[in-house]
Amino acid sequence: MHPPGADIVLVRHGEIGTKSEQVRRSMEERLARNLSALLADRGVDGSVERERTRLFVHSDEPSAAVGAATDTFGVVSASAAVRTEPTLDAICEGLAAIARERFDGGTFAVDARRAGQQSAHDFSSEDIESDGGAAVWAAIEAAGGDPAVDLDEPDLTFHVECRREVAYLFLDKQAGPGGLPVGTQEPVVVLLSGGIDSPVAAWKLLKRGCPVVPVYVDLGAYGGPDHRARALSTAETLASYVPNVDLSVRVADGGAVVERLADELDARRMLALRRFMLAVGARVAERTDAVGVATGEAIGQKSSQTSANLAVTDVAVDCPVFRPNLTADKADITQLAREIGTFEASTIPTGCNRVAPSLPETNADLHAVREREPDDLFERARAVADRAEVVALDR
Ligand SMILES: Nc1ncnc2c1ncn2[C@@H]1O[C@H](COP(=O)(O)OP(=O)(O)OP(=O)(O)O)[C@@H](O)[C@H]1O
After folding, report:
1. THUMP domain: from which residue to which, for each copy (predicted)?
2. Are residues 154 and 300 in the same domain?
């Protein structure tokens, strides 16, 4: 809920504040650009202003601007606010005006902080809280209401952030994703199957500032058009968070290799397939200046993902393999998929055939895996990656 007449959004970031002056400035600039891009993509009126430790969005659409801010990686929270003079009288008047319009019964509290130079004001945060609380109380009573204060768990909190030049009044702090602005880290290739886990892994990398390069390996007879459409659809959802990042999907044709592995290998088939996919991703990384390859895997979630098997797949490539979900439980990954909006597309039935054997290897030995997999597996991976089709997203 925002105060009546709110025309500015306070945007808070977190870890950026721990950086050196130079890094902080460049990250804040990136955050401002990313937020501007998201506002423009959503057709939300708003201009972003950067100040030390904060961004501000000037907007006549405060709810939509808060929505964009809280979808921007790097943002910890956002509040739609009204501004007043930084005097005790003006703040109390402003709080009373908000109370008249927004208090709807229950309990309230006033929470105040002064930012910047404390000596700029001749009153303390406690003064704002006590005088502001009295002003809110009087306004509610005058309107025929029944005010009650609860400082621990109020139904409505009147927040005041008093700065040297201006005081901001707001009613809530909407949580953002946190993390770092996208583009402040080097790109990473993500093997995006479109299942529940890999879009979440991609989102987590975006959240930590990495632009991602999605790669989908077409499984031929073991995949199909719906399987591919599912991957593209999850990429489109991811792209809606970062409209200024190119999330075109590299679609690599792995059909012939998958068929061969299914024909020739039994228990170790999935390991060879994972090693092939990693090699496809590594080749794309090489060609796109990405620093590594990420997957949606988590320790022990599937037979191909036991800690022993993950070790065997990693050594297929020279570049780092990132697994943002590594220690996450499936329930938590699924919950996040729901929250970020990829779950629905990820669970569309694709009717694809099962590649996995009925008795898969769970404790693979690297020598045994190497011995059985085709000699030209990695050569084929590179060739498939080089021929990958770059599919622009439908947005
Ligand atoms: N067809 C594919 N194209 C690209 N990457 C894939 C593909 N299949 C699997 N992967 C990668 O390998 C990881 C493990 O594969 P797994 O078989 O568990 O995937 P899934 O269950 O189909 O999808 P997800 O792991 O996304 O839920 C995936 O998280 C993904 O990173």
Report:
1. 63-173
2. no
d(CA 125, CA 114): 6
Domain end position, chosen among 173, 204, 230: 173
Q: Is the CB of 193 under 6 A from ligand 1?
A: yes
**Residue 362 and residue 246 share a domain:** yes
Assessment of whether the complete model's pTM goes beyond 0.90: yes
Does 81 lie in the same domain as 20?
yes
* Helix axes of 377-386 and 255-264: crossing angle, nearest 10 degrees: 160
- Summarised one tens digit per residue, pLDDT across range 297-309 is 999 998 889 999 9
Whether 138 and 206 map to the same domain: the answer is: no
Kindly state the average pLDDT of the residues 330-352.
Answer: 92
CB 328 near ligand 1, within 6 Å: no
> Does 317 map to a domain?
yes
Give the domain range for residue 127: 6-173
* pLDDT 10s digits, 118-134: 667 889 999 999 999 99
Q: Which two tokens stand for residue 39?
A: 């506002």
Question: Annotated binding residue at 205?
Answer: no
- Domain endpoint, select from 122, 152, 173: 173
**ipTM entry:** 0.98
Q: Stretch 355-359: mean pLDDT, rounded?
A: 79
Q: State the distance from the centre of ligand 1 to the C-alpha of 191, rounded, in angstroms.
A: 7
- Same domain, yes or no: 344 and 218: yes
Q: Is 296 in the pocket of ligand 1 (CB under 6 A)?
A: yes
Residue 196 near ligand 1, beta carbon < 6 Å:
yes
Protein residue whose Cα sits closest to atom 31 of ligand 1: 295
Ligand 1: residue whose CA is nearest its atom 6: 193
